[in-house]
UniProtKB/TrEMBL annotation, chains A, B:
NCBIfam families xref list: PRK06349.1
UniProt keyword list: Amino-acid biosynthesis, Methionine biosynthesis, NADP, Oxidoreductase, Threonine biosynthesis
Listed name of the protein: Homoserine dehydrogenase
Metabolic or biological pathway: Amino-acid biosynthesis; L-threonine biosynthesis; L-threonine from L-aspartate: step 3/5; Amino-acid biosynthesis; L-methionine biosynthesis via de novo pathway; L-homoserine from L-aspartate: step 3/3
Family label: Belongs to the homoserine dehydrogenase family.
Organism, as annotated: Rubellicoccus peritrichatus
GO biological process, one term: threonine biosynthetic process
Classification of source organism: Bacteria, Pseudomonadati, Verrucomicrobiota, Opitutia, Puniceicoccales
GO MF annotations, alphabetized: homoserine dehydrogenase activity; NADP binding
Amino acid sequence: MEGKRKIRIGILGFGTVGQGVWKHIKEDRAALERRLGVKLELVRAAVSDLSKKRGVKLAKSKLTDDPYAIVDDPKIDIVCELIGGTKLARKLTLRALANGKTVVTANKALICEHGDELFTAARKEGVHYFFEASVAGGIPIIKTLREGLVANRFPLIYGILNGTSNYILTRMEREGLSFEEIVGDARDLGYVEADESLDLDGWDAAHKAVILAYLAHGKWVNLDEMLVEGIRNITARDVAYASELGYKIKLLAVIARNFNDETLSVRLHPALIKKGEIMAQVDMVFNGVSLTGDVVGTTLLVGRGAGQDATASAVISDIADAVHAIQGAPGPLISEEDEDIYRQLGEGLTLAKPKSVESAYYFRLRVRDEKGVLAKVTKAFSDAGLSVATMIQHEEPSDGSAVLLFTTHVSNEAAAAKAINKLEQLDPVIEAPFLLRIFNAPEM
Amino acid sequence: MEGKRKIRIGILGFGTVGQGVWKHIKEDRAALERRLGVKLELVRAAVSDLSKKRGVKLAKSKLTDDPYAIVDDPKIDIVCELIGGTKLARKLTLRALANGKTVVTANKALICEHGDELFTAARKEGVHYFFEASVAGGIPIIKTLREGLVANRFPLIYGILNGTSNYILTRMEREGLSFEEIVGDARDLGYVEADESLDLDGWDAAHKAVILAYLAHGKWVNLDEMLVEGIRNITARDVAYASELGYKIKLLAVIARNFNDETLSVRLHPALIKKGEIMAQVDMVFNGVSLTGDVVGTTLLVGRGAGQDATASAVISDIADAVHAIQGAPGPLISEEDEDIYRQLGEGLTLAKPKSVESAYYFRLRVRDEKGVLAKVTKAFSDAGLSVATMIQHEEPSDGSAVLLFTTHVSNEAAAAKAINKLEQLDPVIEAPFLLRIFNAPEM
C-alpha cells in the first residue's frame, strides 16, 4: 500500500453506531483499503463524557470531548456525524462542510428538518454529504433509489421503516399480548430511543419517509403537513380481529405520487395489510421498503433497519462512496446539476389534500350493550358516506359494555373523519372511537 | 443543455431487451439527461434481419445488419451488448473494448464463461464493462453486493434467479398441476428461452450464481464443477407432499463460503424451503436474493427478474454508471486495483467437495406394493447412514404400485448418493428414485 493516499476519518459521537463503525473499520481495514485503493486512518472520536465506560475501548489520544477537534482538524477528510439530535449536529455538520470535509451521517431527524440547508451548504462548498444509514439501516435504499433504479419514476413507495414499533407489533401478534406488556421488553432490550415518541408515535419513521419522498420526488414535506400516527393505541383485540380477517397490522410509511394530477401524498400510520403480502412477513426489528417504478415494476428490499452492525455497514458503505468522491468521482447527489434535478422533479408538484386520500378503514368502538345501539352506529357510518364490509361484536359481561369492530369499503379520510365525529357524539359510545387504515398493496 | 457533452449509444441486438432500452431512453431522455448532466444520443441498433417486424419502429438510418458499424464507429461511446449467446457476443465485446468503448451487457452466459477474459480486456484498455442486467433483472443486486454492502464478507448468498422456473413451480403449487401441464403455458407466454435447457435444467440460474460467486468471493467456478439440477422431474405429488410438510419447492442458487476452512460451495437445484420464509413468498416470475453479510446481517431483495422493462431498467442504470465512468469516476469494478481485490478475495479459497455438502433430504420412490418393501427401503436408508424423519405412502390401486415419500434428518450428499444407489438396486423399486434437498434458511 506504499504511496497510497491516506484518508483520515473522525467520528462525532461514540455511542452504539459510532463504536460499531470504529470496530468494523478496524477489523476489516485491510480488505477495505484494498477495495478502496487508499489507506484509512481512524483519527479520533468525540464524546460528551470522557469517563463513560464503552464496549469499544480507545486509547486516550483517540478520544476527545471537543467535537471541534474533529470538524476543525485540517487533516481529517471525512467526518461521521453520529451524535444524533438536530442542534449541535447541525452546527457541527455545517462547520465540517464549510471546512471542506465530506460528511457521512445516520441522522434522519437532521436531514428531515434541515436537509435543504445542509445540501445547499455541501453544494456551495463543493463537497459531499452522505446519508445512506439514515433510512432503513443496513438496507441500501438510498443507493437503490438514486442509482440502481435511476431509470424510474415512482408512483408508490411504501414500507416498514421503524424496527422498534415493528418488534412490538410482531410480538403483540405472535403472543396475543397488549402494547403495554411488550413495550417494557423493547425498552429493556434498548430498542426504544431515549425520546420514546420517535419510535412509539411514528416520528422516526416519518423522518425517513420525508427523506425518501425528497429523493424520489424532489419535494421536502414538513412533518406538520403529514398524517403521522404511531402504534400506542393499538390493542391486542385490534391485532386479533385483523388476523381473523386475514391481515397483520404494520406501521407503514406511504409515499404516493399521482402523475396525472401531480399530487404527492406522504403519510405514516399503522395499517392492516394482507398476510399474504411479503411486506407482512417483515417481522421483529426488520425493515422493508417496496418501490414501484414506472419501468422496473415493484422491487422490495428487506433487512435490519437498526442496530450497531447494520447501521455501521451503511455508514461504511457511505465512507466508501466518500473516498471515491474525494478521489474525484462525480458524487451521487449533491451538485449544481443535481439541485436542478430535484427542483425539476418537484416542479408543479403539490401535496395531496390529506382529506382526499383514499383507503378502506377499520373501526373499533366501545358501546353500552343496549338495545338499538347497532342501528345508531351503522346509521352514523352511512351518514358519513361509509359502507360497512364486516362487523363483529364482543360482549364484555363484566361491565355490560361491548366492543364493536368494523371494516369498511374504500372511502376517503374526509368520510372517515366525519364518521369518527358522528360516532363520538352517540350516547352509547363510551370510549373514543379508534380507526386504522387498510392498505391494499398493488399487484406486484 | 448547451455545452453538455454528448454521449452516443449503440445497441447490439434489437430483441425484447434492446427495444425496451431504446424505448425507455427515448421516452425518459430529458429526465435522464438532467440526471446525468450529459446529452444522450441513440445512434443505431444492429440486428441480424432488417426485414423483421418489431414493436419499436426505427428509421432505416437507425438500423443496421452490420454489428461492426457499431463497435467500430469511433463516435459511439457506449455499446449495449444485448444479442445473447457467447460466440459473436464475445467477439463484438472484445472488439468494442479494444476500441475504447464502455460496454453494458445483460449476457450472463457470456460473463459466466468468459468473464475473466472480458474483465482483463476491459482493464487492459482502461475502460469499463457493466453487467447489472445479467443477474436478477431489475433487482440492483450487483450494485448492492459491490457498493451498498462493501463493508461485508458473505458467508451465504442464496436465492431464486430464474423467473421461468419459478413461474412454473408457483403455478404447479397453486393449481396442483404437473410440470408438463404448465410448461406449455410458459412457452406460450414467451417465458421459456429458445434454448429451453437454460430455464428448465437450471443453466440460466447457474450462470447467474457463478457471477455472484465471483463478485462475492473472487473465484470463477466452472459450471462442470457445480451441482446443477433443474425442475423437469418435479411432480405434482412432490409439490403436494412438500406443502403438507410446510414447505414450498423453489429452484435455489446457493453460494456458501465457510470462512473457517476457506471452502466455497456453489450449487443450483430445486429445494424445499419453509413456507414461512420470505423467499418462499417470491412467486411467479419474480426473483429474490438473500445476502448474509458478516456486518449487516441478512438483506433480501425481491423484484422482477426478467422481462423487457425490468431488464431495460437495469441496463439503463448501467448506462448511467457508464456515463459517470466516462466522465472520470473511478469505476466500480474493473481496474488493476480491483483485479487485486478479487484475486485476494479468492486467495486460498478452494471449492467444497460436492459430496461433503450437508442438507436434509426428500426422497420419492415408486415401489411394487408388496409385503416387506418398507423394511427393505428403510434398511437402505439406514445402511447409507440416513435417518428418516417423515414418511407417507400413496397406494395406486390401478397398477398395484405405491409411491413412498420420505424426508430425512440432516446428512450429506455422499450419504444421499449412497442411498439412491442402494434404493435403485432394490427389486421392488420400479422407478428411478428421486431426491430433493431441504434448504434451511438461517435465522435472519
